[in-house]
Structures are given as C-alpha cells and as structure tokens.
Amino acid sequence: MTSVQQPSTSTKDDILMYLLRQGEATAHDLAEHFEVSAQAIRRHLKDLEAEALIEHRTVQEGMGRPNHLYQISAKGRDRYPAKYDEFALSLLDTMAATMGQDQVGTMLRKQWERKALEYRDRIGTGSLGERVARLVQIRQAEGYMSEWHEVSDGDVRQTGPGYIITEYNCAISHIAESFPSVCGHELEMFQVALTDCTVQRTHWLVRGEHRCGYLVQGLD
Fold first, then answer.
1. What is the pLDDT of residues 99-111, one digit of tens each?
2. Which Pfam family would be a valid example here (predicted)?
C-alpha cells in the first residue's frame, strides 16, 4: 500500500513565503513545488484562507473546471514586516496634525537623505555588484525580504553591468499607506547610496504588484 507523503509542520509558512515571492499559484503548482499531495496542500490552503492570511480568485481556462489562484492577503503580508513602524506612524500622524502635512513631508525627505548617506558609508567601495549585495544585506537586517540578481543579457537594454533588487515585503508598509511619499524617496535613496549608476523602479507594491523591484545599471 502506497503511503501519502505528509506535509511538514512548516508547510503553511512555506506556502505563505512562496506566495509572497511568486504572487499567485494554484493548489497544483504548490503541490508540485513542495512535493506533497494535492489533498494535503488544499487542507493547508483552506486553513490559511480561514485565518484570512491568503485569498483566491477564480479563473476559467477552457471548458474544464474553474481554477483557484491563491495569493497572500494584506493580513498575511503583515506577518513579515517588523512592527516597529506602528509607533513611528502614530508619531507622524501627531506631527502632521500639529505641524501640517507639508512640514512632515519635508522632514521625511531629510530623513531619507540622511539614510541614503548612511547606506553609502556602510556599503563602502567596490564593484557595483559588491555594493548591491551589501545594500541588500543591510535591507534584510532592517526587516525587508530583499534579494538581488545580475541582469542576464537580453533582459533589458544594458549600458553597463545591471542588477535587479527585489523586495517582497515592506518593513514600513503602515507608514507608506498614510505617507506614500516615502516610497518615492526610496528610489532616490538607492540612487544616492549606490552612486555611479542609474536606478529605475520596475515593480511597486503600492500599485498592487506583489513586490517592489529596482533595476540598477552601471554607467558607461
């Protein structure tokens, strides 16, 4: 008698991590990826959906049965960012009420300029690839699920060495919801921190995408 492989106790967390990285997946995709039975995966999906950590949309492909595409919910994303931003958000709200929104915006810009210079000092010198790797390590330590990879030939029109920085969560998501300008400052911050390169935004959580992405390219 063939036994059915049982999922590990961490499978739910693994599913959330997979959906955080991939955006969407079917139960079949997940079963294949984790090499467990579809029945076991569906039990976990049912539990995760009951906890409001994931949600699904139904798509019809051809004449067969509709398919469920699962994605992580806002509540599920909140499991990953650090919670230290809650006090900061309360403080910013108080400052906006007393000082005015414009002055708070100016203060946030100055904060990001200061952060950019701090990053640049901590990153130090070296090739662009080495500096990108060190920046990602710093971001990971700050609570971002951040990673990087080198751009392959043909992926983009390259003027020099190219790298993609991807962040699957936002450690200051609650602040960004109330003060969206902080997201715009992040792009400027990376540009100042890395120097001698261009930085372009490729994906943005604020626009409903499942990750933030930045293309970093060296200059000729």
1. 888 888 888 888 8
2. HTH_5
Which residues on adjacent β-strands are paired with residue 56? 70
Structure tokens at 102: 């414009």
Report the C-alpha gap between 137 and 142 in whole angstroms. Answer: 9
* 43/78 Cα distance (integer angstroms): 22
Work out the angle between the directed axes of helices 85-99 and 101-123 (0-180°, nearest 10). 140
Alpha-carbon gap, residue 81 to 204, rounded angstroms: 16
Ordered domains of the chain (ranges, CATH): 11-77 (1.10.10.10), 85-218 (3.30.1380)
- State mean pLDDT over 203-207: 74
Transcribe 39-96 into DSSP letters: HHHHHHHHHHHHTTSEEEEEE--TTS--EEEEEE-HHHHTTSS-TTHHHHHHHHHHHH
What pLDDT digit, counting tens, does each position of 121-141 carry?
999 999 999 999 999 999 988
